[in-house]
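1st attempt posting a full record on here, be nice pls
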Amino acid sequence: MATTLIKDTVRTYFRGIGQVMFQQSAWTGLLFLAGIFWGAYEADMPQVAWGAVVGAFLGVVGGYILDEDPSDGAAGLWGFNGVLVGCALPTFLGNTWLMWVCLIFGSLLSTWFRQAFNNLIAPAKVSSFTFPFVFTTWVFLLCAGILHGLDGSGLSKPEMAETFTYTLDTDFGHLVVYWLKGIAQVFLIDSWITGIFFIAALAVCSRWAAFWAMAASAISLALAILFKADPADIASGLFGFSPVLTGIALGCTFYKPNWKSALWTVAGVAATFFIQAAMDVLMKNWGVPTLTAPFCIATWLFLWPQYKLGNSKVTEKTAWTEFTASVGDDPKK
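the predicted structure (as tokens):
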């Protein structure tokens, strides 16, 4: 009995990390975590890696505490917001004990807020996606502006968008690096090697998910260069992570892959890019990042019409459980 409980909890834990990109696979979650550790230690920010470990764990604990739907836990739906909170707070706030207190509390809250937001938008037949992470993280980052026990040195200063000198290396090698970083930044990691980890992790569970992650990052990179976005943001992959999530969501999670859904997905990825650019300007006034809010907004807007693009699947349960099983995920992984 105890052994079974431990195995189930471990599987739930790693699936929670995998579900950040809609993958119900413990192996995918393990590879995601490996990529996070690589990038965090490469950047000399180990607190981000350990924050991910703690955040994912407390997301699961939060589900157990409130006795939420066990099938959600088994599918990994308790932990994915928590792991993102665990990555974000150490990225933007100083590595102090008070930050860790906020990380622990915020990771628990993200699981509970997920249930609250899901109940709120249930009539719309969509999930809250990563918005509980966004909302929770925004709260703590904004608090740093007035609660001086939190070191907000990692945040930008509130200001309007500035002009910049446009210089960007666009040789093939640099473009590949920017492209891979766009995928890695889903977990706030600025490392092209982490991007390779994430592609491999997605391919373990779904080759379509890996394809759309790569395609979405490429589309957003092309748009960022075409419209001359901030070169520093392009080089860090900061225009890629929300489009990557939108690409996976529309391209192969909530709609089965076909030519109609492919066109719809490309449109959704492009919309996400422009929504992010607009939100970057808006949020600069508050000195906080947009996080994955552009992905949430764009994906909601592209799911709410409920167009029939072949065999569409637009319910949370179907998208997060039945679909991943249909593309080869072994429930025993």
